[in-house]
Amino acid sequence: MRKTIKYFMWGYQEHFRFSLKYDTEKVLEKIGLYDVDFEVLLVGALASNSENNYPICIEPEDEKWDLKIFSGLIEDIGIEIENHPLKNMFYSNDEQATRDKPENIRRESVSIAVKKALLQYDEDNDLESYVGLSTLVEGYYVVPIIQITKEVFRKHPKLDKKTLRNRNLSQGSSNLVDAVLKILLSNASKLLKTENPGRGLSNIKVREVVRSAADSFLYTPSIAIYEKYSFTNLFETLNLISSLFYEGVHSLGKIIISNPEHASIVFSLEFQDPVPISKTRWVRKVLEMSSEKFSLIADNEFIYGLGSLIADYDFSDQNIFIVEFLDHYYWQISCGDIILLQSHYNEPRLYAGNGQEELLFDNLNRLYPYTTHTEKQNILNLVLTLTNLNRGSMLVIAEDAESEVKRLAKLGTPIKPILLTPDLLEQVSGIDGTVIIDPKGICFGIGIILDGDAMPECTPSRGSRYNSGVRYVYPTENKKRLAVIVSDDKTVDIVPRLRSMIRLSEIEHNISLLEHATLEDFNQPRNWIDDNRFYFNEEQCIRVNAALDKIENLKSEVGRIRFITQRLSPNKDMNISYLKD
């Protein structure tokens, strides 16, 4: 396909944006965010000494962002430059810093002005725009932007911004999502400095980005506690502690991270000489003294003793953090009710429980639309009961529950049908095997050992309970089944994980736009269709492919950039349960 870029900054601007969007999706999935609404765009502000045609450019140019959002941006950049705090900064012994100062001021001022220009758009669309540092690319100061729905931060709350006495001290990252988006944009700004950015692959290493984000985020507690940077890499240190055994026993226990002089800290005993938190084997040894009642008391550098918090402590000041060691190489850090981060075998993630209720309700509605709200609420209560137990377990909801329990009778304990209650579930889940209920919550069997063949969805990185649930649930043919798997390490999985629902009218609207598109306006429906190709049935695929063929065969001017879109074919897993109307 050929496309004329009206708001042209450089030849690979669309490739660059696609690459950043792909990287963002993979990183968000790595920390546990699936099917999140986010967008990536680039805004370019004309350099003062350039003769390019347009003062402001945007990529993509024919989608939802109107250039009117950035009307007056050039003037706003000038104001930001005049008011920039570095204007009055002088480097007496650093000639290079003095030479770089004007360009650094301009780059920061462009980003600040773009961020301010997007504030009203963000407010109107329930979004938060993360704005990277602008970089000069062929006559334009290009700003990479990631816009993400604020719903993410309602499910995974940020720490509050504090009023710091030292105005030059960074606030740090407010949560793990905040940290990964900042690192992605920092990487994007660096790539914009390379020759022909977007021409090659970004070669981003997803795990490294996520771990770097966790490293960065866990400097935030020290800033909150002492308003200073820590010399301790807390993420790395906690991972090392959680990996160690003491006399054959893996790490279990709690650490309260705070200023030890905080009024809400009550010491039961204090060490004569504080234990350096960097001495991980020593810390692992003293961790053995902690319990449900008593925790180690620490700041970002030392362990000071054993103690607890006063009963009525209010975490709203966000000056105290709790680290819990849950299992071997598995820990989490929280502030009050907010679980900020979990790490399992050095893989940082968001707390899986946030949003699980909504996901479960969505799956129940789509798989079993004939059940009542009361029946679904009872199943939710059953799942919450399982997650609060201190052991691994599994609950299977199956349309064919009765016949399946009869088939598997020799591999478990069939029971007379009964409405399962949370109290009863707590008792019967103590034995090995799975509890099987139907979509109305009627239990037919307990302690059932599931069967099933290996499936592509199985993974050697997960335990036998998880893979057993996957093998049983996926090959269901016409019988709908759902498994809630609580692993020994308290990880909660809902299998299968259904894709987000989409409106049929939205599919038809974008097909129609593509069918009537020209070389000037095909890009928006083409991109939307490419991002959502899973949802198209056979007839819709035929229409889309015909429209793509027509556009590809249109005559074009010399100099147009050619992009190839893979043709659509129906996905065997797509069905009407993924459609809203």
Provide a descriptive summary of the structure in words.
The protein is of the alpha+beta class and 581 residues long. It has 4 domains: 2-217, no CATH class; 225-349, YojJ-like (1 (3-Layer(aba) Sandwich), CATH 3.40.1700; 356-495, YojJ-like (1 (3-Layer(aba) Sandwich); 504-578. It is 35% helix and 21% strand. The protein is built from 18 helices and 21 strands. The strands form 4 sheets. Strands 8-10-9-7-11-12-13-14 form an 8-stranded mixed beta sheet. A 6-stranded mixed beta sheet has the order 16-18-17-15-19-20, with helices on both faces. Strands 2, 3, 4, 5 and 6 form a 5-stranded antiparallel beta sheet that branches. It starts with a strand and ends in a 19-residue tail after the last strand. The model has no long low-confidence stretch (mean pLDDT 86).
